[in-house]
Task: structure prediction
Amino acid sequence: MEGCIFCKIASGEVQGLRVFEDEQTLAFMDIAKDVDGHILVIPKKHVKSILDCDSETLFAVAHTMKTVSNHLTENCGYEGVNLLNASGERAGQSVQHLHIHIIPRKRGDGIDAWPKFNGAKEDLKEIYARVKL
Ligand code: AMP
Ligand code: ZN
Result:
């Protein structure tokens, strides 16, 4: 999509540090410099978020997430990964092209990748009745 930074990285128009790619997906280094080894996995085609992503593309993204995560833990000295995604602006998505963050983890790394929530406000069974498929 015109003007989309991740489409430009996928096509090579903008340079990215490409960790892994296949026909449908790309993994590249996040430039945030917030944690060591922060990697993003994207579909090469423009999909806004998980909410409008077709199953085949999502499967390809998941497969690449696993390939990169296994590589990090088997060959790069990491012991685990956190996988993070924001879908929708209200969820904190800032780049409007689907991306999964891979945060590689090591014992004692001091990273807080799992937010401490404030506590639920609604009754569990009432929510359950609303969300159950
Ligand atoms: P989110 O807030 O979940 O939408 O995350 C967007 C991520 O994209 C942030 O972690 C940014 O650091 C990252 N980002 C933005 N522009 C670039 C870029 N040109 N290359 C690599 N990562 C980027
Ligand atoms: Zn895009």
